[in-house]
Amino acid sequence: SAKQSITIFTDFRCGYCRALASVLRGMDVKVVERPISVLGSRDIADRVYCSKNQEQALHAAYAGEPLKNGASCDTSGLDANEAFARQHGLSGTPVIVRSDGAMLEGYRPKAFLESWLKEVRS
Asked: What is d(CA 39, CA 10) in angstroms, rounded to the nearest whole number?
């Protein structure tokens, strides 16, 4: 039911990504997570991606809670995230992409994000 959506390229071992995820939970925005392994977190991303409840697993991963080694699944979506990041020179996290394609690198506080989201171009 959120009015806007944003895509976040993130790494589960990134402290700024964890802080951003916490900020975004308190905003009226749909968040599409695109995990990339900048800090060697592919094993965590695989477990989150293959989890029966991805949202719960995502928050557990950011909280540093142990994740169950769930069933394996097709992780080609994660491979695509990694390939996209390489092709577009995304070598750090978080990267925030607005629905109009505008992009921010790095953590931003809630007030900044709310203002930035209002600037969406059609």
From this structure: 10
Residue 7 belongs to what H/E stretch? strand 4-10
According to the model, what pLDDT value does residue 105 have? 94
Going through 12-98 in order, the beta strands assigned E by DSSP cover: 29-35, 95-98
Q: Indicate the pTM of the whole model.
A: 0.89
Q: By three-state DSSP, how is residue 101 classified? A: coil
10-residue mean pLDDT profile of the chain (122 residues): values are 88 95 93 93 93 91 85 91 93 94 95 93 72
Q: Report d(CA 27, CA 4) in Å as an integer.
A: 10
Neighbouring CB atoms inside 10 A of 2's CB total 10
Burial (CB count <10 Å: 0-12, 13-18, 19+), residue 89: exposed
Dihedral (CA of 56, 61, 66, 67) sign: positive
